[in-house]
Structure to design on (426 residues):
């Protein structure tokens, strides 16, 4: 049985390993040690061994991991061994960046729909997609068996859109709207707030000489 | 003396508290308990109390935090009590999303320059900015005393651009390029990789019934 309850800290690192393995395989590298993976990721070798051991015994002690074998296992663990269909809500700059995903990224993820309520943008083409009205969402979700949605709508509309998504059977949401979403327990929300990322970065840029009192 | 070595896990939560305080103050709420903050953030009340206590005694036991006071303290801790100038490298969809930041977001952060090497886009207007050639970067950094940069260039160009940024005195980089950057110890890089965010989310959407062997 596939565990779906791995700690999110581990899950977030798996695609990082995958990307490095992709590059290594392109360069015909067959074996990689946790130490080399550590150099390329910035995570400690111990952390990497623990992360991978969580899912099984994929390496050989003193040698390392077979790149092709580990890549295949990771694809399966993440769920990228088969195509995953994704929809994008909102067609602003961020939505567009995801809409262009099909062309520029990898073969595992396919954006099958992009939705908005603004009549001015509906019908416009983003790569191989046309922006559709929000009303068409449930149809597209059903047709393509979509479970994953990227939410780039304004904060005020986010909860309403999410309620609709959940009704349609979406179970994983990448949320860029700057608001906390309420969802049932079986739905996983991953919040990525670019304002908050930028604000927390500013902490590190502030002068060290200044006091707070 | 202001500590700049707070754990990044705490630093990332500070802007979340700040946003909630902004909303509460708009609604004339004067006091907030850690329990209410917990409801609004999804972090535990204990976590919130620990986070804030890291920087000082801002609350009153049994009562809570004064919203205006706590907000002022947080602004100072993060470094948002004065305007911070930011530049954006790369003018694709993601770069554009940040270029529009001045209009749509808050008064603390100001994007003062947007740079690209593509002659087709240089000179184009993004809100109150014009996209400038990469060569103009050091001038703008000096003029506006910029310490923070948002990197949205392709992976292959990222390290070169970062080396230039570091030479110009940038100390905090929000990196969207899907690659690990090498920087001196005094430079803080915050990696946000949208592909990796999406891939790790797919883990949670995969069917629980499938085995990996």
């Amino acid at each position: 049985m596939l565990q779906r309850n791995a700690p999110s800290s581990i899950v977030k690192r798996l695609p990082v390993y995958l990307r490095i393995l992709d590059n290594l395989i392109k360069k015909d590298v067959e074996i990689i040690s946790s130490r080399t993976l550590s150099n390329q990721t910035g995570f400690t070798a111990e952390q990497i061994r623990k992360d991978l051991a969580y899912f099984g015994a994929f390496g050989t002690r003193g040698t390392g991991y077979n790149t092709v074998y580990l890549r295949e296992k990771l694809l399966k663990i993440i769920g990228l061994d088969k195509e995953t269909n994704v929809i994008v809500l909102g067609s602003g700059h961020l939505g567009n960046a995801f809409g262009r995903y099909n062309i520029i990224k990898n073969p595992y993820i396919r954006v099958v729909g992009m939705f908005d309520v603004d009549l001015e943008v509906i019908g416009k083409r983003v790569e191989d997609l046309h922006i559709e009205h929000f009303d068409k969402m449930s149809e597209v979700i059903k047709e393509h068996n979509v479970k994953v949605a990227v939410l780039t709508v304004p904060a005020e509309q986010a909860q309403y859109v999410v309620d609709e998504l959940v009704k349609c059977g979406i179970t994983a949401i990448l949320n860029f709207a700057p608001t906390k979403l309420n969802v049932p327990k079986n739905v996983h929300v991953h919040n990525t707030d670019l304002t908050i990322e930028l604000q927390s970065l500013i902490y590190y840029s502030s002068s060290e000489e200044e006091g707070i009192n």
Notes: Chain B touches chain A through 67 residues (CB under 8 Å).
